[in-house]
Amino acid sequence: MHSIQSSYPVLIDEGSLVRFNPTFLLYSLATGKKKERLNGSSETQESIHFKTSIFIPSKKSLISMSDSNSGLIVRNLELMGMKFTSSAESADRIKATIRQNYDWAIQNGNTAAGQ
Prior knowledge:
This protein is globular. It has helices at residues 23-31, 62-65, 70-75, 88-100, and strands at residues 2-5, 10-11, 48-51, 54-55, 106-107, 110-111. The chain contains 4 helices and 6 strands, in the order ββαββαααββ.
């Protein structure tokens, strides 16, 4: 079994662009398991597992767009009305560092916000 051990959080930007029922996507991300597939010999291939925190900022609730499953509520924490930067300048510094660092927010052991 392949596994991706990651201590870096993952950000999937602009969840409000989701135009479909995200139930399957949210379950897949929460369980950290890729959908199993068959190889050419009709045998189950090894699936990839991952362990990380995934953030999906969105102007609308992805859980409310999903099926009404209580399992989604316990697997996904939804925070509404949060302010993540102190100013527009701070947000611009974060974006500039990420663009210069191939979409990584961490560079040389320093966070973008701390620079």
